[in-house]
Write a structure and sequence with these properties.
Length: about 250
């Protein structure tokens, strides 16, 4: 669950699918279904890396498995347990991981049982690693075989998505900084970082009330939403439901 939460693709897919303003596709073709399956398996594989790694390391160490399975170890071949009932035998075996609570005559049995349990734990750990590696290999082969893209198309698509995200983040950061700086200038009378400050403006009480009440992003069919926390201070012209460019004055 933590792997799904920290994955950026999970929130990107949920946002695109659940956002009320995004257009919902009425029909989904086979290409979109394949891409959705590839994305889901990619998210699942990355989410399973951390728990499988922890489980494999714990099994290879053997300590956790020894504490969990010592109560159910098979000790019929040891004569020291002939005079004990099954509940008493399980109670003694459960105390094997604790050195200070073992009877002196059980030390040799304890060492052999602990060694056997650690062998079993390491075998399970290596089996888990082998199964995970095999599943990862088969998943990669299946993804390559079922992918609608060739190797060159997949490389171009991955490069395109990466460049699109990078350029969009750069443009969004520059756009928001310019817009916020313009509105701050209208509020205080000068740009942030400006060395030549000849004229300043004293904000009124209404100005402070406007910037203290954050405006949310509202997107409708014929109106552009407000993206600022500094009040509605820029005039945006609309023509036939389409917004024109905002002219920024110096």
């Amino acid at each position: 669950m933590v792997g799904y939460v920290v994955s950026g693709q999970t929130w990107m897919i949920s946002k695109e699918s659940c956002c009320s303003s995004s257009p919902h596709l009425r029909s989904v073709n086979s290409l979109q279904r394949k891409l959705a399956c590839l994305t889901f398996f990619s998210i699942t594989g990355r989410a399973l890396v951390a728990p499988l790694t922890w489980l494999a390391v714990a099994l290879l160490t053997g300590t956790h498995y020894e504490c969990a399975a010592s109560e159910f170890a098979s000790v019929e071949q040891y004569n020291e347990f002939n005079n004990f009932s099954i509940p008493e035998r399980q109670e003694i075996l459960a105390e094997f991981p604790c050195f200070e609570q073992i009877p002196p005559d059980m030390l040799m049995v304890r060492n052999e049982v602990a060694l056997q349990l650690r062998y079993q734990s390491q075998m399970l750990g290596w089996t888990l690693i082998a199964v995970a590696a095999l599943v990862a290999f088969l998943s990669c082969c299946l993804a390559r075989c079922c992918s609608p893209f060739t190797s060159l198309q997949h490389y171009y698509w991955s490069t395109h998505v990466r460049n699109e995200r990078q350029l969009f983040e750069e443009a969004a950061e520059q756009h928001s900084r310019i817009l916020i700086m313009q509105r701050i200038k209208e509020l205080f009378g000068f740009m942030p970082g400006s060395e030549d400050v000849r004229q300043i403006r004293i904000p009124s009480c209404q100005d402070w009330k406007d910037i203290s009440r954050p405006s949310l992003v509202c997107i409708t069919d014929n109106q552009q939403g407000c993206y600022n926390f500094l009040g509605e201070r820029l005039d945006v012209n609309f023509e036939e439901g389409k917004s024109e460019a905002i002219e920024l004055t110096s």
